[in-house]
Design a protein that fits this description.
The chain is of the alpha+beta class. It has one helix spanning 16-67; strands at 74-79, 82-89, 93-103, 109-119. It has one domain (14-119).
């Protein structure tokens, strides 16, 4: 019996090196996708909390407007991690500045500033 060597052109399949390179490229892609999902999740949570802070600022501004000029002089309130402060200035036309702050993470704070000019 004669052993016949198979010519290189007749071989089929992938080499071990090609398979390893493909696995490494696939793993890098999956890790990148996983980190992107985590970042998108955090950004969605942050956007939701910032929206809540802005809605709270709007409610506070409407409450101050409903109470009249005497309630608008200046003040501050804190409740459940949310700090709200307001200050009014001017005669005749009044400028009202409302600031809301909430701790959203270890070092992040969302601020909302709303200014209105009111006729007395």
């Amino acid at each position: 019996m004669m052993n016949r060597a198979v010519p290189k052109s007749d071989r089929r399949g992938f080499t071990l090196v090609e398979v390893l390179v493909a696995v490494v490229v696939l793993a890098i892609g999956i890790l990148g996708l996983a980190s992107t999902v985590a970042v998108v999740g955090w950004n969605m949570r942050l956007s939701y909390l910032e929206t809540q802070v802005r809605a709270r600022a709007q409610l506070e501004m409407e409450g101050l407007l409903a109470r009249g000029h005497e309630a608008m002089m200046s003040g501050e309130r804190r409740q459940s991690g949310l700090s709200i402060s307001w200050q009014a200035s001017g005669d005749g036309l009044k400028q009202l500045l409302l600031v809301t702050r909430q701790q959203l993470g270890p070092h992040e704070v969302a601020d909302t500033l709303v200014t209105l000019v009111l006729a007395q």
